[in-house]
Design a protein that fits this description.
The complex is a heterodimer. Chain A has eleven helices and no strands. Chain A is mainly alpha-helical. The two termini of chain A are 35 Å apart. Chain B is mainly alpha-helical. In chain B, 76% of the residues lie in helices and 1% in strands. In chain B, strands 1-2 form a two-stranded antiparallel ribbon. Classes of the chains: A mainly alpha, B mainly alpha. Chains A and B meet through helix 5, helix 9, helix 10 and helix 11 of A and helix 1, helix 6, helix 7, helix 10 and helix 11 of B.
Chain lengths: 289, 308
């Protein structure tokens, strides 16, 4: 997209999103996501204790330990804040990977059509039918102790399938728009047509789908860590905190409640944002009351 | 599809570092040549292509290799665990489709009403809650605090000595919490889907015609719209299976339900390669079989799909 097009595009996007600002539930969702992000970024400064150090005997919440201490005597609040860092960072990068892969495959399939399209979509169908979380657990278990960046890449590489189908459908629709045909008639190359004329048209759909992918990826990472094959100690994510709680037979409710609640609230807020974005960006759908 | 999954499983094993016998090298008391002998005995010294063809042939015969941790064929181990998981998944699937469709109909009948908004909010909550956390909460409240249900496993101690019907009851008692977790999560997804499908159908011309000719809204929803709006939900059945299996695996971990999930945990902690890939393979095949069934159901329900 050229600078001029970007300047023209940005206000239009803001305009499309304007009605959302009047919906209290959307504001709440934005607040939750923003709040969790800020707390995650500031974790080293706002966390009262070292998240990996035992600071006292296992105990229920008190003034000294607002969320209590876990089975190993570590401060739950500090672990929660530092866990947010890991959970959100993993989700953000994995979502970016998934969005890039999904858009690329979807754009190629949708624009090339024919045999390429059939082959790619058959592949995506097959991949969609995989119980993804099982495959990820197996992958991570076989390659013991994968470094975090690889884990993130694999998570993203397993999350793009639904997105690519959506992008493909949108690209196919956009490819027959008149101005795209005009660009082709004027002699623009394939790559140029796709990148400059078709993809900006599907950006909204990608944004909506990525939001939903982000929710899925957060849960997937938590699930893997809950299985003991994701984020490894001394790092803590919300998922591995739950696994720690499970290790003590869920005997201390205050160790199980916060990470799950944080997980659920964040995912709920992200999903709600995705729904709201879809309402705002899809002109066929009227915003719901 | 099955070929894709099998190939994937094979390369999972191949690409994994080491082999089932590396531990021999770490033990100075064992002659290192034993590893080579064992590798030869299990065919691990053959070229990759040969191993691949053998693996395919074995899987086709229902032989998934040998579980080194359990000293049993993987197929035997899985055959013991799979029925438990299928029981859990089947119960959850049946209940949540009935409940989800019903809820979706109630919501779509009066969109925007208080019951619609309240139940939709609740559905969104359960839809967003990670299933393993929901399982943990149910465990803490209903097994830990209230002690209404057992905290885990699939049978009480000495259950074998009970009369058959008492044993079945005992098993059902153990099934409640794991199944409830999956039902809550899946019902939320199904109802969201059913509501949207029904609302789409209600906007169709033939439904408006039916209402215009004097039919009550209730009759229009139940007799005209619902039949067609059920179709996408049948398709969802196939799509929901991978998620449901994933959910079952986690719920089993929380409740120590002795199914595929618990098997997978064992395989993971013991680095039991063949058991691990066998689990993934059987899980994938279950899902494939399920989606095939859903496709057939959809074709049976929709004459338009019979032609293609």
């Amino acid at each position: 997209m050229s600078a001029a097009a970007r300047r023209a595009g940005a206000p239009r996007l803001l305009e499309a999103l304007a009605p959302l600002r009047r919906r209290p539930s959307v504001l709440l969702a934005v607040t939750v996501v923003a709040g969790v992000t800020v707390l995650a970024l500031l974790a080293p400064w706002v966390a009262p204790y070292d998240p990996a150090a035992a600071v006292g005997p296992t105990q229920a919440p008190s003034a000294l330990f607002p969320l209590g201490t876990d089975g190993a005597g570590r401060d739950v609040l500090s672990r929660l804040l530092h866990g947010a860092r890991i959970s959100l960072a993993v989700a953000a990068v994995a979502t970016l990977v998934a969005a890039t892969l999904g858009t690329a495959v979807g754009a190629v399939a949708g624009y090339a059509g024919g045999r390429t399209d059939a082959l790619l979509m058959r592949l995506v169908d097959a991949l969609l039918a995989l119980p993804r979380i099982l495959v990820l657990i197996a992958l991570f278990a076989l390659w013991e102790g994968l470094p975090l960046p690889v884990l993130v890449l694999l998570l993203g590489a397993m999350a793009w399938f639904p997105l690519s189908r959506l992008v493909r459908a949108q690209v196919r629709a956009a490819a027959s728009l008149e101005y795209v045909l005009a660009a082709q008639a004027l002699g623009a190359g394939r790559a140029r047509v796709v990148l400059r004329h078709v993809l900006p048209n599907v950006a909204g759909a990608v944004l909506v789908a990525s939001t939903l992918v982000a929710g899925e990826v957060i849960v997937a990472e938590a699930g893997l860590s809950f299985f003991g094959v994701g984020v490894q100690p001394p790092d803590a994510s919300w998922g591995s905190m739950l696994d720690d709680a499970r290790g003590y037979g869920f005997a201390h409710w205050w160790t199980a409640l916060p990470p799950g609640l944080a997980l659920a609230l964040t995912v709920m807020a992200i999903n709600h944002l995705g729904d709201a974005l879809r309402d705002a960006l899809d002109p066929r759908q009227l915003p719901q009351p | 599809m099955a070929a894709v999954v099998t190939t994937l499983a094979f390369f999972l094993i191949q690409l994994a570092p080491g082999d089932p016998f590396v531990w021999i090298l770490e033990n100075p008391g064992i002659d290192a040549t034993l590893r080579d002998r064992l590798r030869a005995q299990f065919g691990l010294d053959q070229p990759v292509a040969v191993q691949y063809v053998r693996y395919l042939a074995n899987v086709a015969r229902g032989d998934f290799g040998h579980s080194f941790a359990m000293s049993q064929p993987v197929a035997t181990v899985i055959a013991r665990a799979l029925p438990n998981t299928l029981l859990l998944m089947g119960t959850a699937l049946a209940l949540s489709f009935v409940l989800g469709v019903g809820l979706g109909v109630v919501q779509a009948a009066r969109p925007g009403s208080l019951p619609d908004r309240a139940s939709r909010g609740l559905a969104l909550a359960f839809y967003s809650v990670p299933d393993f956390w929901l399982a943990a909460l149910l465990l803490i409240v209903f097994a830990g605090w209230l002690r209404w249900f057992p905290p885990g496993g699939d049978a009480s101690l000495f259950a074998e000595s009970l009369a058959p019907w008492r044993r079945a009851l005992d098993r059902a008692h153990h099934l409640v919490l794991p199944a409830l977790t999956l039902v809550l999560v899946t019902t939320a997804a199904v109802s969201r889907f059913q509501r949207a499908a029904l609302l789409d159908t209600l906007a169709e011309d033939y439904v408006r015609t039916a209402i215009a000719k004097g039919l009550s809204r209730r009759a229009a929803v139940l007799r005209h719209a619902l039949r067609n709006a059920l179709l996408p939900v049948v398709t969802l059945l196939g799509l929901a299976l991978p998620a449901l299996l994933g959910g079952a695996v986690f719920v089993e971990r929380v409740f120590a339900w002795p199914g595929m999930g618990s098997l997978l945990v064992n395989a993971v902690t013991q680095r039991d390669y063949f058991l691990l890939t066998g689990c993934v393979l059987v899980g994938s095949l279950t899902v494939v079989a399920g989606s095939l069934l859903a496709d057939l159901l959809a074709i049976a329900a929709d004459p338009r799909q019979r032609r293609s």
